[in-house]
Write a structure and sequence with these properties.
Layout: E1 3-8, H1 23-34, E2 38-43, H2 47-53, H3 55-62, H4 71-86, E3 91-95, H5 100-115, E4 120-124, H6 126-131, H7 133-139, E5 145-147, H8 152-159, E6 170-174, E7 177-180, E8 210-213, H9 229-233, H10 242-256, E9 260-263, H11 272-281, E10 290-295, H12 297-300, H13 305-311, E11 313-321, H14 325-330, H15 337-349, E12 353-359, H16 367-380, E13 386-390, H17 399-402, E14 410-411, H18 415-421, E15 438-439, H19 452-470, H20 477-486, H21 490-502, H22 506-521
Parallel strand pairs: 1-2, 1-3, 3-4, 4-5, 8-9, 9-10, 10-11, 11-12, 12-13
Antiparallel strand pairs: 5-6, 6-7, 14-15
Helix pairs in contact: 1-8, 4-5, 10-11, 11-13, 20-21
């Protein structure tokens, strides 16, 4: 039996969801244990470690370029590597993030390789699919390979000692060349459930008690031009049996005292939300749990929202992106404004808190499309409870990233490197962001004539008009779920969370969740 470490360092706390227990890490632990090995999850995105590491160190990390270092930063990397090396682990699966977490993780892998030349280190996580072979090009021999997608088969086989060339869903280096094995369509229930016990998932009690559930292999059959999801998980959807999902939820309720859950599927299979709701209503868990979820207008408009509300669904996130039909076609959203309006009305009328997220401004946005979205937001106000807005992101393996010239997008010369470490902080006003490493056409002007300041000005103006003229609040779906957990007013809860993140006040954020965790502890069997 060998010792396997599943490691995560997400860097600065950019979003409160980072301190939720990580389903993928816990599930990897279950897979490793099933192969007969000792599994440990070391997830540094927890309140205890955030306070131990300290805001100053994390702020220092955020100010470094990809190849830059400082004595205090380097000392932190060496200390972490020494602790891991002393643990006697033979294999490390390292969850890779963009931004500050990515830089720290790749520097940690290099230091581990120096201390323990024989250790096997594999990168896992969504950001592997964001950057793929570019990671190996920039990090040399630090990683033995990168696991693509959910990659559960790859982890199981690597834990058995399988060579990279015989392992599916793997990118690795051989004889100076980067190679990739074939991807396999994943059925999640071919694998054991997640392990959240403190003997495996260290410092689990320092995480916020909101647990993730998945209803499928997270594949997406759609082809939105901006989205990396199909590249991550493929387009062939494998739906999980609802009995397995319910059993997992029941286990978390019994062993962890969990009451609040976030469904991770960005595109829940048609009818899957309703199926789970009906299963909950027919189970002993009826009235004991609350859930938030993603939802798509084209996939989930026919859900039984009333049954979902009765089963405990309190909030739904809809990626709307725009309310202008021309922009929706340009983004390949597969929906229309009328379908959006009808779906939001049904969900809202059932008593579910509705959240709409917009990409603003998008490449090719016009003054007319912007005004159409704002005008129609006023029409939607009775059915839309919250509005989020983000600038367009250009990831390498999306349609935008693969073919930027088709959309008039201009990438900076160091685009890949800068994107990897770019600190996306949606809770911080965009005027305080670093300039993005790309430009795109706006208001009839080519990308060459558009500055980051132009993008920031338009987004800031949109946010202010939604707040002041339309009168719709900004409360993410899982912030609403947290407010329900804490028994607090949603908008005030959202403001307090944002304040804590912006001021790096991790002690106050920890205190916010403490009462909820104590209550959850009293519910455990």
């Amino acid at each position: 039996m060998s010792k396997v470490l599943i490691y995560n360092f997400s860097g600065e706390l950019d979003d409160v969801s980072h301190v939720f227990p990580n389903d993928r890490l816990a599930r990897l632990a279950g897979i490793v244990r099933e192969q007969g090995h000792e599994a440990t999850v070391l997830d540094r995105a927890n309140f205890g470690d955030l306070l131990r590491i300290g805001p100053q160190y994390l702020q220092t990390l955020g100010g470094l370029s990809f190849r830059e270092s400082r004595p205090d930063y380097a000392a932190g990397v060496r200390q972490e590597a020494a602790q891991i090396a002393a643990g006697g682990y033979e294999t490390v699966f390292m969850n890779l993030w963009h931004g500050t977490g990515f830089k720290f993780s790749v520097d940690l892998a290099a230091e581990l390789r120096r201390l323990r030349p024989g250790i096997r280190i594999f990168g896992v996580g969504q950001k592997v699919d964001w950057f793929r072979e570019h990671i190996l090009r920039l990090t040399g021999d630090s990683f033995d390979g990168l696991v693509t997608g959910l990659g559960y088969w790859a982890v199981a086989l690597l834990a058995q000692g399988r060579e990279p060339a015989q392992t599916p869903n793997l990118i690795w280096r051989q004889d100076g060349s980067i190679r990739e094995t074939a991807k396999e369509v994943l059925a999640v229930d071919d694998f054991p459930g997640p392990l959240y016990g403190p003997e495996v998932y260290r410092q689990i009690d320092e995480k916020a008690p909101v647990y993730s559930l998945t209803l499928s292999n997270q594949a997406c059959p759609n082809a939105c031009v901006f989205c990396i999801r199909p590249e991550n998980y493929g387009r062939e959807v494998r739906r999980r049996p609802v009995a397995r999902v319910l059993a997992e939820l029941t286990e978390l309720r019994t062993t962890r005292g969990a009451t609040h859950f976030r469904i991770e599927d960005s595109t829940p299979p048609r009818g899957a939300l309703t199926e789970l709701a009906q299963a909950l209503l027919a189970s002993p868990l009826r009235g004991q749990v609350r859930l938030s979820a993603f939802s798509r207008v084209d996939q989930n408009s026919a859900e039984d929202f009333a049954a979902m509300a009765r089963a405990g669904f309190v909030s739904l996130f809809f990626g709307l992106e725009s309310l202008d039909d021309g922009m929706l076609r340009r983004l390949r959203k597969g929906t229309t404004y009328e379908a959006i309006r009808a779906t939001l009305r049904k969900a809202h009328d059932a008593g579910i808190f509705t959240v709409g997220c917009f990409i603003f401004p998008s490449p090719g946005e016009t003054a007319e499309s912007m005004e159409t979205t704002l005008r129609r937001l006023g029409e939607l106000k009775p059915a839309l409870d919250s509005v989020l807005a983000v600038p367009a992101g250009i990831q390498p393996f999306t349609e935008w990233g693969r073919h930027p010239e088709r959309y008039g997008i201009r990438l900076d010369p160091n685009y890949i490197e800068e994107t990897m470490i770019y600190p996306v902080r949606y809770e911080v006003p965009i005027e305080h962001w670093r300039p993005l490493p790309f430009r795109y056409p706006l208001l009839g002007r080519p990308a060459e004539e558009v500055s980051f300041a132009d993008i920031a000005r338009l987004l800031k103006g949109f946010v202010e008009r939604v707040r002041d003229e339309v009168g719709i609040a900004r409360v993410p779906d899982y912030y609403y779920l947290i407010a329900d957990l804490l028994g607090r007013e949603p908008a005030a809860t959202a403001r307090e969370i944002v304040r804590c993140i912006m001021q790096r006040d991790y002690a106050a954020l920890r205190g916010l969740f403490r009462g909820a965790k104590e209550a959850a502890g009293s519910c455990r069997a």
